[in-house]
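Hi there, hope your week has been kind to you so far. Thanks so much in advance, here it is:
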Amino acid sequence: MSGKDERAGKLKGIFDAVKTRVPEPDIDVESQPEPEDEQPSAIAPKAEAEPKAEVDSPKRVRAKGKRSSSDYKQVSAYIPASMHLQAKQKLLREAIATSDAKPKEFSDLVCELLAEWLAR
């Protein structure tokens, strides 16, 4: 028997075992009724916490992002990888220096630079 035939035989055995396997029934312990002749146990069952209804609280509305805004257009530009890395590092350093929680996005920097160039 060749190696390919052996693997096919092993896989067939696995598939046959899965097909013929009988799934074990799920047993729901909580839904089984207690026999009436037994006395309740001295330990009280844990009370289930009621789920908190958040119907009254308004949903947070997220601000529309650049991707879904018709005011923005996604474009591609090829720049050297080292230049991209240096720019991202400088943006992070500036955010740290000014204690900004969120650094300026790279696309915002490109937008500013293009606006300056167009204004000339």
Notes: The mean pLDDT is 79. Residues 34 and 41 are 11 Å apart (CA to CA). DSSP finds three helices and no strands in the chain.
